[in-house]
Design a protein that fits this description.
Largest sheet: 5 strands, mixed
Radius of gyration: 22 Å
Number of domains: 2
Number of strands: 12
Order of helices and strands: EEEHHHEHEHEEEEEHHHHEHEHH
CATH architecture of the largest domain: 2-Layer Sandwich
Helix content: 40-55%
Distance between the termini: 23 Å
Length: 393
């Protein structure tokens, strides 16, 4: 079973070898009115939603059977584990001891990076279940989950929850470069082998997903901003067909490409966001054409930086395999540009996440746990803790 609670998605998944038994992700919509994710609010929502989702995945997998009460000493241990999650504890004690142990052999749970209050809920839930069932916990790096998600191929039915769907992990040729792009991360990672990582490039300030959200806020677009920027940019490209729109005459639409020629593999997106802010301040209000053109130019600038730095990394390390994962990999323009790159470079093999599985989900955590278990590369789970700034090393 996989558990993912690193940010504002509460997700659980069950896999059996190459078969998906259940996979449910609930995105917390409560954050929209605040324009961002509040850690303690995310923690509360995880505690409220984990048990209902847990019941759902057991029912989906036909694992739900009633039994006699669990032993009292184990319940006392559970109370200690969940003492800081009273709502979750109440739901847990009312349900888990009353069911037969399902045929789950191990639990993979995200230990970081992410929002620590949110991470703790998933970790403590995993510990409580492991205590009741006497099974191991496999702590998983969230970014490693995104790597695995990019390597995932669905064979047969395209329905993610269809039990007839076969999941296949496509083996990359090592060494490989992984570009991990999300709301909190922009990293270039050299993969020397399975579970052998070296970070070779990072953002010096804002992550690319964070920049998308901030620019969307500047343009008055709703949260989350990334999909809104992409929607406007795609609409502009389609309608303009390479021609300037009416408002471009009053805008200097050429935004900077930060650190494009810095000589290293690092990124910076704060300056790009600030350039959008200054551009907007020069105008006496934004019309819809302004928003669409700025969205397109911002997305083009960010994409150019990503592609240029990634090409440099591929050449520097002589790599023929590129893996792209993280929520921002669902962006249509970024996907299209990297797919064009792989077409031009005949010797480059591209692995990129299925858009449905690019954002945070528990399936990628379960799969990463299964891979580590098979390779005997599991880390100790006795003292697993939430690590907000955990690196993929």
């Amino acid at each position: 079973m996989g558990i993912e609670t690193s940010c504002d998605e509460t997700a659980l998944a069950l896999i059996d070898g190459e078969k998906i038994l259940a996979n449910i992700t609930l995105t917390q919509t409560v954050h929209k009115k605040y324009g961002g994710v509040f850690p303690m609010l995310a923690k509360r929502e995880h505690a409220k939603n984990l048990l209902p989702i847990f019941k759902n995945i057991l029912e989906t997998a036909n694992f739900l059977n009633l039994k006699q009460k669990a032993r009292s000493e184990k319940l006392e241990d559970v109370k200690k584990i969940l003492e800081r999650e009273p709502d979750l504890l109440e739901q847990f004690l009312a349900f888990v001891p009353t069911i037969e142990k399902p045929p789950i052999n191990a639990i993979a749970v995200t230990e970081g990076p992410g929002l620590e209050p949110a991470l703790w809920v998933g970790i403590n839930f995993a510990k409580a279940l492991a205590t009741i069932w006497n099974i191991p916990i496999i702590p998983i790096n969230h970014m490693e989950g995104h790597v695995v998600s990019a390597l995932l191929h669905l064979k047969g039915s395209k329905q993610i929850l269809n039990s007839e769907t076969q999941i296949i992990i496509r083996p990359p040729v090592f060494p490989a470069i992984a570009l991990l792009i999300s709301g909190g991360h922009t990293e270039l990672v050299l993969m020397k082998n399975w579970f052998d990582y070296e970070i070779v490039g990072v953002t010096k300030d804002d992550a690319i997903g964070e920049a998308f959200d901030k620019v969307a806020r500047i343009l008055g677009l709703p949260y989350p901003g990334g999909p809104e920027i992409s929607r406007l940019a795609e609409k502009t490209r389609k309608e303009s067909k390479g021609l300037a729109l009416k408002s471009e005459g009053r805008l200097n639409l050429k935004l900077p490409r930060p650190m494009l020629n810095s000589g290293d593999l690092n990124f910076s997106f704060s300056g790009l966001k600030t350039a959008v802010l200054y551009l907007v301040k020069k105008l006496e209000g934004l019309n819809e054409d302004d928003k669409r053109n700025i969205a397109r130019e911002f997305e083009d600038a960010a994409t150019e930086v990503l592609v240029t730095k990634t090409k440099k990394a591929l050449n520097q390390f002589g790599v023929k395999t590129l893996i792209i994962g993280g929520g921002v990999s669902a962006n249509k323009n970024i996907r299209r540009t990297f797919e064009e790159l792989s077409t031009k470079k005949n010797d480059l093999k591209l692995f990129i996440s299925n858009p449905e599985l690019a954002t945070d989900n528990a399936l990628m955590i379960a799969l990463a746990g299964q891979l580590r278990l098979k390779a005997n590369k599991t880390k100790t789970s006795e003292k697993i803790t939430a690590q907000g700034n955990l690196k993929i090393v």
